[in-house]
Description:
The chain is mostly beta strands. The protein is 4% helix and 31% strand.
Amino acid sequence: MNRKRLAxxxxxSMIFSFVQIPESAQAETQQGELTAQSQYSAxxxxxxxxxKYKDRQGVLYTLNNQDLTAKVASxxxxxxxxxxxxxxxxxxxxxFKGKEYVxxxxxxxxxxxxxxxxxxxxxTVVTIGDFAFSTSTLKILSLGLKVKDMNxxxxxxxxxEIYINENNPFFKFVGDxxxxxxxxxxxxxxxxxxxxxLVIMDGTKSIGTYAFRNAKIDKIYxxxxxxxxxxxxxxxxxMRFLDMSHVKRMESWCLEECxxxxxxxxxxxxxxxxxxGTAIGSCHSVKNVYIENSINLGRNLxxxxxxxxxxxENGNSFISGYTENVNLKYLIVSDNCxxxxxxxxxxxPNLTKMYLPESITTLSEDGGGGSYDSKIPYHKTTWCAxxxxxxxxxxxENGYPYQNIDEHTHELVSTVFYEDEFIKVTGQYCExxxxxxxxxxxxxxxxxxxxxxxxxxAPTTAPDADEIVQLDEEGKDKYGIxxxxxxxxxxxxxxxxxxxxxxxxGEEDGVVELPAYVKKGNDVYSVTKVGDFLxxxxxxxxxxxxxxxxxxxxxxxxxxxxxxHLYIGKNVKTITNDTLGKMKNLEDLVVDEKNGYYLMWNGAxxxxxxxxxxxxxxxxxxxxxxxxxxxxxEDYAFAFSKITGVYFxxxxxxxxxxxxxNSFFYCEKLNWAWINEQFWYEGSCLFQNCSGLETxxxxxxxxxxxxxxxxxxxxxxxxxxxxxCLRYPGSEKIRIPKLQNLLMPNVVSIWDDYFYGxxxxxxxxxxxxxxxxxMDDDVFESATNDLVICSESEKAKDFAETKGFSYMDLxxxxxxxxxxxxxxxxxxxxxxQYCExxxxxxxxxxxxKMTGVEMSVPTATPSASPVPATATPSATVxxxxxxxxxxxxxxxxxPSTSPAGTPDSVTPTPKATVKPSxxxxxxPKATASGKPSTSPAxxxxxxxxxxxxxxxxxxxxxxxxxxxxxxxxxxxKPPAWKRIHTKDNRSIIxxxxxxxxxxxxxxxxxxxxxxxxxxxxxxxxSKCLFRDRKVKAGRTYYYKIQADNGAFSNVKxxxxxxxxxxxxxxxxxxxxxxxxxxxxxxxxxGKYVEIYMKKKNKFVRISLSENNIxxxxxxxKLRCLLKNKTLSFKVRTFxxxxxxxxxxxxxxxxxxxx
Length: 1154
């Protein structure tokens, strides 16, 4: 028995043994590998703004009340970041007057010249403007998941380290170089100090504008994939070596003032901006110029005063400015050269002979760049040419040294034209006449591109066995879907590449999970595309999952299918037109929150920059308030959907909202539509087969959109609101037989063509503006004699009398305005103020109940980038009685199912309402113009854009949340501290003793004991505990507690351990006797790891054969012999300093079933 027990104990103690990984996987991290990516920590904080739209540090924000989005505004140089040690965390959201705004952009020059050390950009930000972080003090910049639009100027003058969310598909930072992964270009080199060499990532295609400006690098190695050097790419760079032989495009001043560059070797240029000289600039140390094909060898080889050899293999011109080329020894012009500038050799004492081919027909002095004395002696340079050539005639006519080579035979000798530590230029040369041929150059070993040192992205881990699907002999998976494989890239396409090559016909349960990897024979392929037309019109398909390996969904791949549930992985970046259209059953559309190209916003799918609306799930009802950022609504975006209403935002003068032809095809539930300025429609009938459409509010007058392009021939519209007149419909006819209300309060010209074909027989009253300027005699022909024209206009009166209509004179009339509701459901309410007596209308609004935002008629064309502006009171009717104001309730955020920082909805905030304290003595008269009161009792708030930031704070709002002098209150006794501690280094827990009579405790924090304290939270009297979750490892924080408005506690400080708890996952893998547990250490501090297992309510450390995290690339594999157990683990990391160990906090407890 004792032996058996001993054996069991021995087995338990040894059930975990470290599984060694192949040596190749144990190698140290490759040079330049993307290890910094994992250090990015997403900012998901929310910051309140004061009445000047600034946060605690004084950073100004621009708010958009329609989309509930925000921007970090330009120019924050006056901000003080001393209390946060020069570290500024841009919030994912800001709050203002109870509403939450998602931060989407950092405007240009937002932090230019600001004394900042570190900036953290949240996952919600898409755009970073020019010069946004252009400050020499910046050392660390963290960029979030969706940052997409950004260029070099964003951090000009900055030398900083960049951390990027590892799932950001647009940018990567490797070895001090920021890469644009979409363009495969170098955005910026951000290293500091001098550097011997730099190897650019293999696969890079271009070097961006100002990318290496002022870089202190001796040798820069470009891969042969680089084809373009953009403007000022290497401006003022100190490099001595740069191989440009594979470059095909050089833009102006790309090598400006590269004063140490020794060799310029150019290959087959296909584009050269202006002249080659303009691209090169003044590279004063160049000694060798070798050009394989000169498109236009331009002026400004001037400046190469140290050049020894110039060789042009092919080119029709050699035009260069004057310079003292005293070191020039070899000048070889191509045999097909037609134009030559002889000024280049005016002072070349070492060039004894110059061969000029017969192809030269034009000789010029300076190529058009100046004027010099053509009689300047040419020293020993002799022109060698055949007697009947243009060069010979020119030389003899001007008295230049000339040698006739009619009978000359070249005596060619192998010659080294130039050689240094990087290059050797050789060829055959005739010393008697200066003729050269068979020229070539060879880079020495020092100059060859060291591909093995090329920076690489973090290696992709091999797929797990359960992720690979074995294909059958016909190359099909279990659903019968064939795969096209590419042996070169080891990728595969699910389905086919062309129209109708293969269409999925499977039935079963209608659930398809496409594989991430397929195996054909012995080869494994990563599946990257859903083939064209794969699931088109397949009614049996119910659910489809597209894994993370996929980058493209092919043409019409899902169009017309029966899909109800669709999941799109994080790497899908290309969705072709019509792919997601016509899915009538689509209920649930999920885009992985780590996808950097697309996102879900308020139920619809957009591109991450919110410029393209892709699709609205067909089974989703409610109204869509299109964001102001949207530039295009894609084809079939709303087709067959249950949408009930749509609001199209007004755009700026130079902007346009484009709507594709079939965007609203068969939206039978669509009840209302509001159209504003700069609307552009690409089709012939915007609301085709929208049989439920009853209300149209038109606030645009484009020739592009008339009634005939809006509606079908026979429409069911009941309410037609013309805030602006429609343009002439031409000869096309439109019938609106059910029209009940025609509201056009501000229309001053009424022509028959506006209403051609409309049936007015049911129209009883029509208000016409008193400002009427013109009216057609034939308008309203179909109206009956029951129609009453209501107006103060004499023209309207004359028209009514002529047509036999009744007329109501409004000169003494007072409007009795009541609310008219066009449509209302759980998502929106569309209404106006309406007078039943005269049909006058005003105050048209569309309220988004999901956000609390109320849209009204735009008073001005919004700018592309809203900026703070002084609010102007809108035209209102001032009641005779003094109103009292009911303050708005505080909004609370509804849990979001969208990506971080992208709310699906927000609980509506009640508007401030005006309630007369006494009944008015007389009914106030309202007019169409409605002049505002000179002293409004309530200062109105504009509907969109940002509100007055210069207004003085009111007495109530003047008191900020910063602790100052103790204010009188019920509680005068200061709170006493109980305890301050942390459990995981990610938050600090504050506890204090109860203060009798207190209703609320306020918590304040500072980065310095005597610095500025900022309120970070409120706690009700029932709690004497607060958890500060916004802390960072290695920092010290100081806290104060205030009871109500009474006295403050003493200051308590807490230093956060510099090593936070690691983020770890554990998964069971393998099968049978080969079951093992894989621990993945993701975000962590330190170099080493310890794993603890729970045994008898106690965690016991497991002995590892190696605990260095990097050796195993963060993956620890432990073989497991237990069965049918639930195991618990916790992990911590540590560093070794001499003999001491510094430990992190333990991770969260991990559980796994085996």
